[in-house]
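Troubleshooting log. The previous structure file for this entry was overwritten by mistake, so regenerating from the original sequence record. Sequence copied from the archived sheet and checked twice against the printout by T.R.
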Amino acid sequence: MPFTIATWNINSVRLREPLVRRLMGEEAPDIVCLQECKSPVELIPMEGFAALGYRHIVARGQKGYNGVAILSKLPLTEVGAHDFVDLGHARHVAARLENGVTIHNFYVPAGGDVPDREANEKFGQKLDYVSAMRDWAHRDRPEKAILVGDLNIAPREDDVWNHKQLLKIVSHTPVEVEHLAEAQAAGNWVDVTRNDIPEGLLYSWWSYRSPDWDAADKGRRLDHVWATPDIANAAHGSRVLRAARGWEQPSDHAPVFATFDL
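Regenerated output below.
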């Protein structure tokens, strides 16, 4: 059963409901994983999504911030949600498809602006969160699983517009990259996007601060699709829908896609 999955930090699902519906209408992925929904689950505008065929939802929500949701044309069953490091944040939810594939949708803390856990509590929380993801993968050993989401870390040199300039910028510091690599190794996760697109600059986020994000093109690849080795070879067709960053009232993130033939 082939299916296509899209992951997108939407930065308010209620504010940007028209953009989600546009994605669903024009691109028609089978599964849409959203982060930073900024809404209680009961206020997610499901009626419009259901009208486009996305009748199944598994979500965790919070008023005004965080929040993750899996919207699907395919039947799925919720299989849990982790509150890593007890932050009390809605940052993870998991669902299982009828073919046995488990989808984990993550929104890793951004970490603030200062890359020092002593000076910036949020940076410490981010590192601890990613370490908890590592420990979870060691403990539970994921199989037949896909992990997607805004992991808020751009690990490779070609995942940012300027490696040297961003070494001291939160999202690309060596300590963050090291923590993410440990979490990835713990689950034997395969970076599906970079398996499909092994070389070259690749971004999924562009700052709102740039007066012309497209011309400046100072992006980072913060949004990821990973898979366990038992299904990673079934993945193909990875891409970033860069055009969505230019839609009216856009998120600062663009959707990332992958297709799995399973």
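The chain has one domain: 2-261. Archived copy saved in two places this time.
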